[in-house]
Write a structure and sequence with these properties.
Number of helices of chain B: 0
Oligomer: heterodimer
Order of helices and strands of chain A: EEEEEEEEEEE
Radius of gyration of chain A: 13 Å
Strand content of chain B: over 45%
Order of helices and strands of chain B: EEEEEEEEEEE
């Protein structure tokens, strides 16, 4: 089944404790991205990657890092999480071939205390 | 910078009614426009994707239209059912010099279908 997976789905952590949220897609998509969703603010793009070893900032990159060492994986790294990073996070991959349809993972609900 | 607005923010209608959700965008240089459905606490499910060269797309009881010149898209839901209750999001994908860019989302329309 074609899908985007994220882990963990739920995470409660404390300020300053480094964490990684993994994202993997099995559709051989080149373009992947991370979004966060907050009440009243909607979905905003954090980082995106157009291919292996190619990443760039989205609208709200501060406090986040990403890497793209393999095509299928695009982990989101919070080196020193803070309470304002409490949010619902979504990973997405984009089909190619000129269609550019986005497929979303199930989401990771992160709480930083 | 692209801005996407969805009106209304919330809508409650009786079961069986036909309804229209609206989405407007400020920059017409879009690559495509996508409608999603999101159930509470869940991920996004893609409903319809309209390429910039298309006028509409249909899937079952759903029909989405696109008018780039006026910066508008609508999602038409026919014969609404309680199972259609969810938040509906539209998102515009921009075209950058290197190809398609990320999505800019509206804040969604929270739809409730009353049994």
């Amino acid at each position: 089944e074609a899908q985007v997976t994220q882990n963990p789905r739920y995470l409660i952590t404390v300020t300053g404790k480094k964490l990684t949220v993994t994202c993997s897609q099995n559709m051989n998509h080149e373009y992947m991205s991370w979004y966060r969703q907050d009440p009243g603010l909607g979905l905003r793009q954090i980082y995106y990657s157009m291919n292996v070893e190619v990443t760039d900032k989205g609208d709200v990159p501060e406090g986040y890092k990403v890497s793209r060492k393999e095509k299928r994986n695009f982990p989101l790294i919070l080196e020193s999480p803070s309470p304002n990073q409490t949010s619902l996070y979504f990973c997405a991959s984009t089909s190619g071939g000129g269609v550019n349809e986005q497929f979303f993972g199930p989401g990771t609900r992160l709480t930083v205390l | 910078k692209q801005e996407v607005t969805q009106i209304p923010a919330a809508l409650s209608v009786p079961e069986g009614e036909n309804l229209v959700l609206n989405c407007s965008f400020t920059d017409s240089a879009i690559y495509n426009l996508q409608w999603f459905r999101q159930d509470p606490g869940k991920g996004l499910t893609s409903l319809l994707l309209i390429q910039s060269s298309q006028r509409e797309q249909t899937s079952g009881r759903l029909n989405a239209s696109l008018d780039k010149s006026s910066g508008r898209s609508t999602l038409y839901i026919a014969a609404s059912q309680p199972g259609d209750s969810a938040t509906y999001l539209c998102a515009a994908m921009m075209y950058s010099g290197g190809g398609a860019d990320g999505l800019t989302f509206g804040k969604g329309t929270h739809l409730i279908i009353q049994p």
